[in-house]
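Researcher: I'm comparing several assemblies side by side, and this is the next one on my list. It has 902 residues spread over two chains. Same procedure as the others: predict the full complex and return the structure.
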Amino acid sequence: MSTSDTRPDTTGAGTTGTGTGRGTPPADSRGGAPTPRSTSRPSGAGLATLALVARRVGTALLTVLLASFLVFFAVQALPGDVAQQLLGQDATPDAVAALRETLGLDQNVWARYGQWLLGASHGDFGVSLVSGAPVGPDLLIAFRNSMLIAVPAMLVGVTLSLTLGVIAGVRRGRPSDHAISLISLIVMSVPEFMVATILVLLFAVAIPVFPAVVLRGDSATVAELLPAVWLPVIVLTLAMAAYIVRTARSSTIDVMASEFVTTAELKGLTTRQVVWRHAVPSAMLPTLNVVALNVAWLLGGVVVVENVFNYPGMGKLMLESVFTRDLPTIQAIAVVSALVYVVCNLAADLIALALDPRLRTRRKARS
Amino acid sequence: MTPIVPEHRPENRDARGPSRRSVIAGAAGLAGLGLLTLAGCTPARSTPTIPEAAATGTAAQGGRLRIARPAASAAETLDSASSLSAYEYLGALYNRLVKLDEKGVTVPDLAEEWSASPDGVTWTFRLRRGVTFHDGRRFTAADAIYSIEHILDPDTASPQGEVLAAMIGPGSMSAPDPLTLRVELLTANAEFPSLLTAYQCYVIPEGSAGEIGTTGIGTGPFKLSSFEPAGTGSVEAFDDHFAGRPVLDGIDFYSIQDTTARVNALLAGQIDLISQTNLDFATAQVVSASSTATVARSANAQWYTIPMLHTSAEFSDPLVRQAMKLAYDPQAIVDTALQGTGSPGWDNPVPPTQAVWLDEQRAYDPDKAKALLKQAGREGFRTEIYTSSYESVFTPMAVAYRDQVKQAGIDLVVRNASSDSYYTQIWMQKPLMVSYWFTGRPIDQLLNQIFRTGSSYNESAWSNPTFDGLLDSARAEMDDDRRRMLYQDAQRVIVDDSADMTPMFGDRLVGLGRDVVNYREFGFEFDYLQIGLRA
């Protein structure tokens, strides 16, 4: 049951790999994962941990590099000549050739990749083919705007869903569990644009408390965006929370059935103590990666939500760039998204490392 | 010859693929399904609760109108000659020498009257006196000449450039006095003034081509106060406009790329009008049922076509083309695909509201169609018809047409193609598909651009020497009545032989706030002077 709780694409895809199962509780978690504070570190393990962290960071960097490579060459392989697309079907061959030269499309593809990578490494993603303005500043504004809805959605979503998931897991089979599971299943099944539309109809049209769309587009300041962020935040929170609730619930159930929880109960701890001091930290481990992937998904998967609200974030920028074939912008967005994915997963891995000493010791034994 | 940009050129479009003058209904596919269901379970023409006409009445003097528009591209400009012009601003900021009225007749704008030499080569326009640009300069013939030269300049790459270049050479234009423009055409053209009604032909001040894209200085009823490509912009009433001050104090334009978002903004009262957007039928019903917004119609604004590729094996046969026409009843397609919000075309591309319209209805005879197919050796003709979610009416129209031609034993399979490559992969490539244009072209431009042999917008690749000859005769015929007869003869040839079917003209369903009065739009004309907010 617990495997069906995670999205197919979140199970392990894109992670740098810690060796534990993603989304599903690790089989060897039975038998008791110690709580963080009970960890006593053997001397010399510090250095090994450092090496492990270094290896993770190295893998992450390599992943980003690989992603940039794939992004660049996938974009090159897009159907249609860029110069032809920009000039239209009636353009003369001379004009197309001239534009190809201006864009540097006549140069060697590897040389262009090298130049682009060098520029990208310090934030210079080239110039937009459509507006002629540098991609970097526009992308930065779009990224900031996306963070403005992603960060609150993430904070509220993760807190809320972990709490609900643990409650459902602890009260397995009771009405509160059924209610939480049912609601999260429903929310999971309804597509985001539907939730968004319903919320707009409720809170912008029927009871006009929030604006339905952002009118000022890219030029909107943070202050102007603030009244408009609430509905997107709610949509994203709901979309994200449902998955985390399901995962948190199943891992809590697994942990609650384990021997060390039974031991804790037998030594007379209250249920509250058992749950929050012993069960939750262990249940967090498998949930962590689902959270990480969901956070990354927030930034990439907001396309629909941002378009419904005309919200000037990265998702909307991406859609527009794809339709106008603004290749430098598409590449920049893809690389930034890859970076966010990798960073989120790296963070998840490092937190898992901190929570679970077995991950460290196992690696040490092997190396 | 390269004509004005057809509305559905993908290179012009914003997010979502489609082009500048077109619109993508958000969930077009869904809407299409909805329509079919509706058509299936209710008698046709039953309950379209879409209002017939826009609200009229006394508007309050002043007020600001908020318009949501799909931006052309981040590279859009206020230079009307450009193919990337921000269309909605143009009519507010500028005037042309001449414009079209609702019947498609050329009427005065900045030119008060015009006349031609008997051979149709020398044209003299007398210009309006006392017209000022927004920066205070006087409008003279030099500005008119400069504006036309700007369109002709190859560097401008104006869609109307080649149309005019075929008639105007270097030194063709002169100004005998400051308010007279004289044009010596390279070849006679009795319809020359109508070619200056295109929305690329707005008049700008002499010497302003370099900065007109951002300054927007014209003679129009509003002057620019701010403009951001693909962003927001505002125009303010111009007190010294020659036709008087507009009713509104100003207009604010907002770019919203997503159709659903535009509709939501309208329903939430954040905007007053959605421009260049044909609401799908289901959405139009929701909007007209709401308390804040309603729907107005721009009658016959969408010209729907079913091109049969003349170069394909099956449709090069005139018998097959004729059978494809006789086999269906356009009224039935209007009733199902448009729910009655339009008028049948009977395969004549000229809308019935136009002065030159040929008032003859072809036969509807499925039995004859069957016989013709038999004669052509194609009994039980079977082929594919392509559609896409590019426009909300496409799929309902393809399905309605398929159902109609069944009576003649024609078996069509409806194929749905991706909307973002529809006009690059399917259009002018597949033997049978559905398409559309906006109406509003003058008759000469319409027939020459879309039906003449070899024109780059001839979407069916049809070629008929008799028809081409009629167009040439019409251009040389200076007598208005005799010219109209020639155009009607040309329409008759199209109905009988052409490879481009016109099942219908659809009303554009325009979403606007309940407070908006005196909204009036037809073809490429929008009445910016009278539109206002309810008193």
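Model: For your comparison table: Chain A has a mean pLDDT of 76.
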